[in-house]
TrEMBL record, chain B:
<feature type="transmembrane region" description="Helical">
    <location>
        <begin position="45"/>
        <end position="67"/>
    </location>
</feature>
<feature type="region of interest" description="Disordered">
    <location>
        <begin position="1"/>
        <end position="28"/>
    </location>
</feature>
<dbReference type="InterPro" id="IPR035906">
    <property type="entry name" value="MetI-like_sf"/>
</dbReference>
<feature type="transmembrane region" description="Helical">
    <location>
        <begin position="113"/>
        <end position="138"/>
    </location>
</feature>
<feature type="transmembrane region" description="Helical">
    <location>
        <begin position="255"/>
        <end position="272"/>
    </location>
</feature>
<dbReference type="InterPro" id="IPR000515">
    <property type="entry name" value="MetI-like"/>
</dbReference>
<keyword id="KW-1003">Cell membrane</keyword>
<keyword id="KW-0813">Transport</keyword>
<comment type="similarity">
    <text>Belongs to the binding-protein-dependent transport system permease family.</text>
</comment>
TrEMBL record, chain C:
<keyword id="KW-0472">Membrane</keyword>
<dbReference type="Pfam" id="PF00528">
    <property type="entry name" value="BPD_transp_1"/>
</dbReference>
<feature type="transmembrane region" description="Helical">
    <location>
        <begin position="104"/>
        <end position="127"/>
    </location>
</feature>
<protein>
    <submittedName>
        <fullName>Carbohydrate ABC transporter permease</fullName>
    </submittedName>
</protein>
<keyword id="KW-0812">Transmembrane</keyword>
<dbReference type="InterPro" id="IPR050901">
    <property type="entry name" value="BP-dep_ABC_trans_perm"/>
</dbReference>
<feature type="domain" description="ABC transmembrane type-1">
    <location>
        <begin position="69"/>
        <end position="265"/>
    </location>
</feature>
<dbReference type="GO" id="GO:0055085">
    <property type="term" value="P:transmembrane transport"/>
</dbReference>
<feature type="transmembrane region" description="Helical">
    <location>
        <begin position="12"/>
        <end position="30"/>
    </location>
</feature>
Length: 443, 339, 279
């Protein structure tokens, strides 16, 4: 029976496929949005971005807190620590399909872009009151959780900003007795430090996000705005051109930055250079955990505010960006109440203290600071910057395009500077104009 | 003479139009029990054989691709990704933006396209050359043959990320092996350490990494192809007095032609669309000189969630590749029948 | 084959160059994997100054390497075997039958290789989610979804290559089998497949490696439990540091089973028509 035989062979193929299927189904993550059993044991899914030394370390940091939450409320939280490389794609997938976690934490610079998708639950006054009131949160951090005039789409949980780290020993060896307070001093100190294969300052020249953050900070100091009042991009305004040129000149003109920094792309190399004593200064967010991981003494490194511009220059007195991590709830969640309970838990003073202490970040609620851990010199310096001279990135839907386009343009400018090509107003402006023209309006 | 290259093609042409090899045994045994007419059954069999493949291709490739083409006509930005049906129809405007080469978007796309074309030609050419050389030189018995064969396949056995990240480590300016050898040990470049991951050299870097990663595949396929060449052909040509070169040109390469035809085409398509190599090597912002198109599209639209625009660029790419493939297939098939 | 006198030299030279080209990065991996991180970051040296096996212990702690490895192994093996099985049937049909639509089928299959991955990533993802909602079979986030995706990724090339290999097997052999009373599929299993073993093995390796190394789709379609190595290895690049020595140690460890597999399959790779029972 030939036909029977043929069918048999095809059945073999079918069976193979079936076997393949059997292997896949068993251990899929049920996806918080899907699995809700109203009354009994609610389970939340929480995507946490990677904050600690590794994905596994993060899990070990978070798990005891989640267990505590379950004890208090009976709500179980499944946490998945998502590596940064995957995070945006995963959130995209969740946003598009309505299938993903209930609660997610993300970098606050994405807030407005994600707000525009409507994927996140707006935290209106009622919600915020449930969390203890708007006033509890640090103003600048909460302002970086969505466009002005709209309810924020998240609340800050880990706060951070930029500061100027300096190597105390290298400073002493070079005969410098205090950190620079002006840009002229910074350049002068940098020149003194630059010798014997060591450099004044380390930058992460091929990192899109670091570049764009510095473009913003320097731009503020020159009185530049990235978007005009109507939301149109103006990356190539004279102020922004001057700002970015000032940053690039640290390598191109003043030669206090190692040209090799132009290829630093993975967001850790400048820090490593600094921590390992290859560079004397670093403009960065908290590097407490890098210092710990490198096994060097934290007391060897001082922290000062990044120099402010001369008040008469017309620039803004801004020397930090409101960085940090926000906690957001996906709109599609079927466990809204449980999710908000979890947000409340994560923003409670106790958890704020525990987690921010571990991560070396700043509590985002005012009642989270009464812990000796936040009274150290460095933390107090960061706290001061965040509270007084930090500004949030523009909260517009096109913000992610700004980061990508301007950050990439600056990668190329650093490369030019490193290879000795002249960096002039014209070359900087040309690149920024190109970036500006590539912005595609989001709305 | 061994000019007759691919005997089966000739056979193919003489096969009966309705195809199936006649099973002479059927009538002889006389055990046809099925009620389905023999002819229909025979006609249905090939379709049953290709059915699983068709279903999978539809599900994974064709339908998503058609959806992707549909997306290119929508203003599918971050505002609408939660509800695609609400995205306004954009007509051809996504395409107009992409092909307006006077604008920054179009100009950078065009630049990236040319970079990719040159990259692809170089990378495929070298991969094929290395693969062929490796496979041909491995013919014949010598010591260490098995070891080398395995060694050559090792780059292929490494996860792409592992191989490329190692290269990026080697290519670092201050701490990489490449500059260590070139500058510290060979004292080239007058002591001035060149950059490999940024600037002009980054193009050479990405070509070399791509070749390193893909030549073992060419080697693997060609080696398997060589096994299928009838040894009689070599003996016959040797009797005709053909030397090694002559045999390579008149037996080996012609017999590999069907394999090569597909191999070069897929190498071309994969290399052109390669996302992993540049992405791991340079991160999500490649240097302008090595701005390959897959990362360019990813960066200029997908990372900012402008899917309408990204899809339009991808569709343009698809049309280009379709055209190249069609021309290639027509050209190589004609050459084949000329042979 | 008669070998000219210069051939051993050419072989030595050509293969030596290729070996060096292949080996240097692998040597870098090996030597970096036995150095402390600080040494790795401080500039390349051929010989490690401080030898340590710590990275090989640390790799399991930094990321759940074991889980990723098992996931990759399951996904890659099943999709490779399934892909080759599906491709064998399809290739046999294309190679041995003239049927309406044959040309359309082969060309369409090949043209799928032109789709840029990013063009159909999002639609495919949506289809998986919707299929999951309708049928209850969870494709998104599951290994099944990845297996189906990867098996299809390798299918076009597998079919085309196998058609080539099958074409080169003389039809007279199938005819002979049919005279012996085998049906068309009997001829496939008794004659064509055994004769095409090198090609099938090569295609299996290809299909396995396609699934083994894929990054883009895996980064969207997997979660904690189903993440594959190709994306999981990126976990060694953390916010604190890129653990170069661990990346390389982990890459070596996970590649060993694959290389051993290659070694075992080698025999079949070079077993040609003449070596088989065909002649």
């Amino acid at each position: 029976m030939r036909i029977g035989k043929n069918v048999g062979y095809i059945a073999v193929a079918g069976a193979l496929l079936a076997a393949a299927s059997a292997c896949g189904g068993e251990d899929t993550n049920a996806g918080g949005g899907g699995a809700s059993n109203s009354a009994e044991a609610v389970t939340l899914t929480y995507w946490a971005s990677n904050q600690g030394p590794s994905v596994d370390a993060d899990k070990q940091i978070l798990q005891p807190e989640l267990d505590k939450f379950q004890q208090q409320t009976g709500i179980k939280v499944n946490v998945e620590v998502v590596p940064w490389a995957d995070l945006l794609n995963r959130i995209l997938a969740a946003t598009t399909s309505g299938k993903g976690p209930d609660v997610v934490n993300i970098g606050n610079t994405w807030s407005a872009s994600l707000q525009a998708t409507g994927a996140f639950l707006p935290m209106d006054d009622t919600v915020l009151t449930g969390l203890g009131g708007k006033e509890r949160f640090l103003g600048p951090s909460l302002a970086a959780a969505g466009a002005a005039g709209k309810p924020p789409v998240g609340v800050p949980i880990y706060g951070m900003t930029y500061g100027l780290y300096y190597n105390k020993k290298m400073f002493a060896d070079a005969g410098i007795d205090k950190p620079p307070a002006t840009w002229d001093e910074l350049v002068a100190d940098g020149k003194k430090l630059t010798k014997d294969g060591k450099w004044g300052l380390a930058v992460e020249g091929a990192s899109v996000s670091e570049n764009s953050h510095h473009a913003f900070i320097f731009g503020q100091q020159h009185g530049g705005d990235l978007f005009d009042a109507s939301g149109k991009p103006q990356f190539d305004s004279p102020q922004n051109v001057a700002a970015i040129k000032q940053y690039l000149d640290l390598m191109a003109v003043h030669k206090i930055v190692n040209p090799s920094n132009a290829e630093y792309a993975n967001g850790t190399e400048a820090v490593q250079d600094f921590v390992n004593g290859k560079a004397g200064m670093l403009m960065w967010q908290s590097i407490a955990s890098n210092i710990k991981a490198a096994g060097v003494n934290e007391a060897d490194f001082g922290l000062a505010p990044i120099p402010l511009p001369d008040p008469s220059s017309g620039g803004r007195q801004v020397n930090g960006m409101v960085a940090g991590i926000n906690l957001s709830v996906f709109n599609y969640t079927k466990n809204k109440d449980a999710a908000l309970k979890f947000v409340k838990f994560m923003t409670s003073p106790e958890e704020q203290k525990i987690l921010n202490k571990t991560y070396g970040s700043l509590p985002t609620v005012t009642d989270g600071y009464d812990d000796p851990a936040f009274q150290t010199e460095n933390i107090k310096a960061f706290q001061q910057i965040l509270a007084t001279t930090a500004a949030p990135l523009p909260q517009v839907p096109e913000e992610s395009q700004f980061e990508t386009l301007v950050g990439t343009a600056m990668n190329q400018l650093w490369a030019d500077a490193a290879s000795g090509k002249p960096i002039t107003d014209a070359t900087v402006k040309a690149k920024l104009t190109q970036a500006n023209q590539q912005v595609q309006p989001g709305s | 003479m061994v000019a007759r290259t691919t005997p089966h093609h000739d056979e193919r042409r003489t096969a009966p139009p309705e195809g199936g090899p006649r099973p002479p045994g059927a009538g002889l045994h006389g055990r046809v029990v099925s009620r389905i007419p023999l002819r229909l059954r025979r006609l249905g069999l090939p379709y049953m054989l290709i059915l699983p493949a068709i279903l999978l291709e539809l599900l994974i490739h064709v339908v998503p691709m058609l959806v992707g083409v549909g997306m290119s006509f929508l203003r599918l930005t971050q505002l609408y990704i939660r509800n695609w049906t609400a995205a306004p129809f954009a007509g051809l405007s996504n395409y107009q933006v992409a092909v307006n080469f006077d604008s920054a978007v179009g100009a950078s796309l065009l630049h990236s396209f040319f970079v990719t074309v040159v990259f692809t030609i170089l990378a495929v050419g070298m991969s094929w050359l290395f693969g062929t050389a490796g496979a041909v030189l491995m013919q014949g018995a010598f010591r260490g043959r098995g070891l080398l064969r395995t060694l050559f396949l090792v780059p292929y056995a490494l996860p792409v990320y592992a191989g490329v990240i190692t290269w990026s480590f080697m290519l670092q300016r201050d701490t990489g092996l490449v500059n260590h050898v070139l500058v510290d040990q060979l004292h080239l470049f007058g002591g001035d350490r060149p950059f490999w991951l940024i600037g002009g050299n980054s193009f050479a870097a990405v070509v070399i990494v791509a070749v390193w990663k893909s030549w073992p595949f060419a080697f693997l396929i060609l080696m398997a192809g060589l096994q299928n060449i009838d040894k009689d052909l070599y003996e016959a040509s040797a009797i005709d007095g053909a030397g090694w070169w002559r045999q390579l040109r008149s037996v080996t390469l012609p017999m590999l032609r069907p394999v090569n035809q597909v191999l070069i085409l897929v190498l071309f398509l994969w290399t052109f669309n390669d996302f992993n190599t540049p992405y791991v090597l340079f991160g999500n912002a490649a240097p302008q000189e090595a701005d390959l198109i897959s990362v360019h599209i990813y960066q200029s639209s997908f990372i900012t969630w402008n899917f309408g625009s990204g899809s339009a660029m991808s569709v343009l790419l698809l049309l280009f590749l379709l055209l190249v493939t069609a021309v290639y297939l027509v050209a190589t098939s004609r050459r084949k029948s000329d042979a | 084959m008669h070998e000219p006198r210069w051939l051993p030299w050419a072989r030595w030279f050509g293969l030596g160059f290729l070996a060096l080209f292949t080996l240097i990065p692998i040597y870098v991996m090996i030597s970096s994997s036995v150095k402390p991180l600080r040494d790795v970051q401080n500039g390349f040296s051929w010989i490690p100054t401080t030898f340590t096996l710590r990275p090989f212990a640390d790799i399991w702690k930094t990321v759940p390497l074991g889980t990723y490895f098992v996931n990759s192994l399951i996904v890659a093996s099943i999709s490779a075997v399934a892909s080759v099985a599906v491709a064998i049937f399809a290739a046999y049909a294309v190679s041995r039958y003239r049927f309406p639509g044959r040309r359309v089928f082969t060309v369409t299959v090949l043209s799928t290789q032109m789709f840029p991955g990013i063009l159909f990533l999002l639609p495919l993802f949506m289809i998986f989610v919707n299929l999951g909602n309708v049928t209850g079979v969870e494709l998104y986030g599951s290994r099944l979804g990845l297996i189906i995706t990867y098996l299809t990724f390798s299918l076009p090339f597998a079919i085309w290559m196998l058609v080539g290999y099958f074409d080169s097997i003389p039809r007279a052999l199938d005819e002979a089998a049919k005279v012996d009373g085998s049906g068309p599929l009997g001829a496939l299993f008794r004659v064509v497949i055994p004769a095409a073993v090198p090609g099938i093995v090569a295609v299996t390796i290809y299909a396995f490696m396609t699934a083994w190394g894929e990054v883009l789709f895996a980064s969207v379609m997997t979660d904690d439990n189903t993440r594959t190595l190709a994306v999981g290895l990126r976990g060694y690049a953390t916010l604190n540091d890129v653990y170069w020595n661990q990346v390389m140690a982990a890459s070596l460890v996970v590649s060993i089973p694959v290389v051993v597999g290659f070694l075992l399959l080698q025999r079949y790779l070079v077993q040609g028509l003449t070596a088989g029972a065909v002649k």
